[in-house]
Amino acid sequence: MKSNKQRRAEIKAHRLERAAALAARLRVQDVRLPQIEWAHPLDWEPADRLVLGLYNNTYSPLPAFYAARQFTCRDCGAEEVWTAKQQKWWYETMHGHIDSRAVRCLACRRARRERLRTAAPGANLLLEKTDRLRALGAAKPSAQAKSEVEAALQSKWWSLRVVAIQTMGRWGGEANLARLHAFMAARPEGGRRYFGWERVAADAARSALTRRE
């Protein structure tokens, strides 16, 4: 017959064996899950899921942290690293979509930006209209500015409509804020319309109102 001390020793040994077996299983990567190669495992930044939730509509879980990623520049083929701090700035300050990734190195980004800047008028009409709306949002709204925003809200480019909504948010005022709330109220909860403009407009309006708080 075993004593209580012997039983406790056996229970402890059994628990240690189970813990060791579990640790061994956790060390083995699950091949069913997508594997990510981190450039620098120690280069990481915590993610603010509250901020990410305001600007992202995704079925994927939001990250708890950012870790540096390696990528190949789309233009020159150079091997680059997208640091954790750069990712945090892109996703939480610039509100880039959580599924977007770095595709160009700094030199190629600057070169592309310069090409777009020096292109002939009309070569990048969407960029020109977007810059125009953002400039209008930085000034007091005039009758002409309001007319341009209304025209942008009817544009075929949803991204331009989003900038128009952001411009209304920057202007503020009772009428503009009421329209932003109307966009939010029209947000569909399901069905085909969930993937339409109404949802995009509602998310843009919520973002514009959040920035005013």
Describe the 3D structure.
Helix content is 56%, strand content 7%. With 213 residues, it is mainly alpha-helical. The protein has 2 domains: 44-112, no CATH class; 122-212. A hairpin with a 6-residue loop joins strand 3 (69-72) and strand 4. The longest helix is centred in the N-terminal third of the chain and has 24 residues, at 4-27. It is elongated and about 95 Å long.
Number of strands: 4
| Gross geometry | elongated
Question: Number of helical segments?
Answer: 9
Helix/strand/pairing category: mainly alpha
Strand order of the biggest β-sheet: 1-2
Q: What is the average of the pLDDT values?
A: 83
Classify the oligomer: single chain
Helix content: 55-70%
Distance N terminus to C terminus? 72 Å
Q: What attributes characterize this protein structure?
A:
213 residues, mainly alpha, two-stranded antiparallel sheet, two-stranded antiparallel ribbon, 9 helices, 4 strands, 7% strand
